Automatic annotation (TrEMBL):
Protein name: Sodium:solute symporter
Any one of the GO BP annotations: carboxylic acid transport
Record's bilayer topology term: Multi-pass membrane protein
Keyword Methyltransferase: no
GO molecular function list: transmembrane transporter activity
Residues passing through the membrane, by range: 6-26, 38-56, 68-90, 120-144, 150-172, 184-204, 224-242, 263-283, 308-332, 353-369, 375-397, 404-425, 431-449
GO cellular component, one term: plasma membrane
Chief subcellular location: membrane
Organism: Amycolatopsis eburnea
């Protein structure tokens, strides 16, 4: 596997090198957190695709294809639909707000005091999202070096933490573009056609597999619906996704680039399911479906090419892990620590320290979690059950009040966590109970409390239309060049 080692070594060195270069660009808070809000169409589309398609979408998507056939595509397809809806309906307005976090948006709409609760919920979501991609590193390093899971997680996670800490969103953006290209070549252009061809094509797979593997609903209609509720809605409101939206240079770039990214996600989801179906055709007796991706790569591809595809999988994991990590750090510093009065040091320094500490915490958690899809489910259940109602209400219902938003976030989150304990992490019920509880509480408390003052709503309306810029005191002075 000398050729594979060389390819992976070059890839890792390149990621660290790009991260070091990003250090030169991250001079202000805006640079570090949202790449100076200067991304054009290609960079925006590539980084958006990279951040949403991580370890769960790659290793987890192939796993679902191995178990359920073509129906395993629905997890990633639901993510793609979320990206399409976000950029069709919301992206233009989000870019105009010129904020850094979801919590800041809620404070702007409701008049303050909501970002502490939303920040805690978003912190839990972004941290667990970081964990899912960090956890997936074990699969790749097990194939390459026969490392135990904890060692693979430590190696992969440390690389992500290093380049993320150095240059923040600029480092992450530049590495994401490289990762997007590698991922496209490795997964779509190499592994997909090789896997299908080795399995005998579609005719060969249909002869060896049960017909259920070629049914779009074999995974279960209730599961498909739940995927859309969790992931499509989750993509509409996640800090990691909004923070990428904030990097767009113009609202038009965000819309067009995001729609392109959504279509790419749909293709990626179908590809993962087909690779998993081919893996089941070739290796029907694997001890764990989680090993389907690593097995098909190890046994089908020649040295060097195998290294490139493994680098593609690493790209998927690292892009999502780094995006979630910077989002978690942003939420920590902007929505939590600042509200507690902890403002010592410069903005960039505080965010670097937060990124480092949270990255180490994510690595530690990943070492004790053993299922990438379950970890992702935990993250999105908390996010959607706790925040969806308050965020959608902020954007579309003027009668919603700060007290209603606050109460709905608390009630929805508690309900999700309670039903995870009662029915299990992988059950469908937590998200529905969380959403239902959150909606009822939001409506009831909003109607029972005074309307949001016109002074707050008027500022919100002007900002949402782009007619009013962020106050000078809250703006970062941008360098004239990067």
């Amino acid at each position: 596997m000398t050729g594979d080692y060389a390819v992976i070594a070059l890839y890792i060195a390149g990621m660290i090198g790009v991260g070091w270069y990003g250090l030169r660009l991250a001079k202000t808070k805006s640079d570090y957190l949202v790449a100076g809000r200067r991304l054009g169409w290609f960079m925006y589309s590539g980084t958006m695709s990279a951040v949403v398609l991580g370890g769960a979408s790659t290793v987890g998507g192939v796993k679902l294809g191995y178990k359920f056939g073509i129906s395993g595509m629905w997890l990633v397809v639901s993510i793609g639909v979320g990206i399409l809806v976000l950029h069709t309906l919301f992206a233009r307005r989000l870019v105009k707000l010129k904020v850094y976090t979801v919590g800041e948006m809620l404070d702007l709409r409701y008049g303050g005091r909501t970002s502490k609760v939303s920040g805690v919920v978003m912190w839990g979501y972004t941290l667990m999202l970081t964990v899912t991609s960090t956890l997936a590193f074990a699969t790749i390093f097990k194939v390459l070096f026969d490392l135990p899971n904890w060692a693979g997680i430590a190696v992969g996670g440390s690389i992500v933490v290093l380049y993320s800490v150095l240059g923040g969103m600029w480092s992450i953006t530049l590495t994401d573009i490289a990762q997007f290209v590698i991922k496209t070549i490795g997964i779509l252009a190499i592994l997909l056609p090789v896997a299908i061809s080795s399995a005998g094509g579609f005719s060969g797979m249909s002869e060896k597999l049960d017909a259920s593997f070629f049914s779009f609903t074999s995974i279960g209609t209730d599961t498909i619906i739940t995927y859309f509720v969790i992931y499509t809605f989750g993509l509409l409101i996640g800090q990691d996704i909004w923070q990428r939206v904030f990097t767009a240079r113009t609202p038009g770039i965000a819309t067009s680039g995001g729609i392109t990214s959504g279509v790419y996600c749909l293709v990626y989801g179908l590809a993962g399911a087909l690779i998993g179906t081919a893996a089941h055709t070739l290796y029907p007796d694997l001890a764990s479906a989680q090993d389907a991706f690593a097995t098909i790569v190890e046994r089908l591809l020649p040295t060097g090419v195998r290294g490139l595809v493994l680098a593609a999988a690493l790209s998927a994991m690292m892009s999502t892990a780094s995006g979630a990590l910077i989002a978690c750090a942003t939420t920590t510093t902007s929505d939590l620590l600042t509200k507690l009065g902890l403002k010592k040091g410069g903005e960039v320094s505080r965010n670097r320290i937060a990124t480092l500490v949270l990255g180490l915490i994510a690595i530690a958690i990943a070492m004790v979690v053993d299922d990438v899809v379950n970890a992702l489910t935990i993250a999105y259940d908390i996010l959607v059950g706790g925040l969806l109602v308050a965020i959608v209400g902020a954007l579309f219902w003027k009668r919603g009040t700060r007290q209603g938003a606050y109460a709905s976030m608390v009630a929805g989150t508690i309900s999700v966590l309670a039903f995870m304990i009662i029915d299990g992490v992988d059950a469908n019920t937590p998200i529905y109970w969380g959403l239902g509880t959150s909606l009822v509480v939001y409506l009831a408390v909003s109607f029972a409390t005074p309307r949001t003052p016109d002074s707050i709503l008027s500022v919100w309306t002007r900002r949402l239309s782009g007619a009013e810029e962020t106050p000078i005191s809250n703006r970062e002075q941008e360098p004239t060049s990067a």
